[in-house]
Amino acid sequence: MKRPAAALLCAVLLAGCAGGAGERPGAVDGRAQDPPRAGQGGTGPVPALPRAEGDTRRLPPVVDHVPTREPVVFLTYDDGAERDPRFVGLVRERRLPVSMFLTDSVVGPGYGHFARLRAVGASIQNHTLDHSALRGLPYAGQRAEICGQQHKLRSRFGISPRLFRPPYGTYDRTTLRAAADCGITAVVLWRASLNTDGELTYPRGEPGLRPGDIVSVPAGETMSPSLTERTVRLLREIKRKGLRVGRLEDHLEDHR
For residues 166, 22, 220 and 196, what is the CA-based torsion angle, rounded to 10 degrees? Predict the structure, then answer.
């Protein structure tokens, strides 16, 4: 098995970033749009975009789905508001390779909970310092949000996350440039999101969970049922579809 890449590490903060009403991932340069498809007949990573003339570096791809023949989907959680200790047990018992995209101002004093999650197999990723909507902000402000959280996560966990999720799923080319300069190798959106009724919704593309889909699970601390209960229900649906949970970093690394 391929060694994982270095452990990396939105209703608004309390309801989970991807589950907000009316949100649609993939707003670029101020215009709401779907991320372009990679290849025919399915979604995939948006090709890395070239930097300014004379700069040979490339911007990170934006992904909501990973092309794969394996029967896997990827579970992602935003912000860090909900810290149900039972969720740690669930991740440990089922060996779930979940990805936690953390916002420093939301996690607050709760980093110990995520250290425990990381110890049982979860990965820690970047979701900005303060959950600011990045699109349209100047480069310096976007870089401060992304690199600032990189520094926080490095000081807390000794890691440099390679994955980044922009708050509300909105971004522009300046976001991609800032992310690249902060060491990010992929900007992660989602193709499916779990709503408050426990149903999967699909911001774009045809409904129905399929291999390679990135799923966002809202994680607000006041939500009911709990994060653990919502995840258990989702795992039943994933199993019913003949799928399992994969480690996002591994598959993104495979398709770079």
Answer: -140
Q: What pLDDT is recorded for position 84? A: 87
pLDDT the model gives residue 166:
98
Phi, psi (rounded to 5 degrees) for 237: -65, -40
Query: Residues near 56 by Cβ (< 8 Å), separated by ≥ 6?
Result: none
Residue 80 corresponds to which amino acid?
A: G
What are the pLDDT digits (tens) for 16-28?
454 443 334 544 4
Domains in the chain, CATH or no CATH each: 58-254 (3.20.20.370)
Q: Hey, what's the torsion of the CAs at 98, 134, 209, 244, to 10 degrees?
A: -10
Q: What is the pLDDT of residues 63-84, one digit of tens each?
A: 999 999 999 999 999 999 888 8
DSSP state for residue 14 in the 8-state scheme: T
Reduced to 3 states, what is the DSSP secondary structure of residue 76?
A: strand
Judge whether 162 and 6 are in contact, CB under 8 Å. yes
DSSP state letters, 221-246: TT-SS-HHHHHHHHHHHHHHTT-EE-
pTM exceeds cut of 0.70: yes
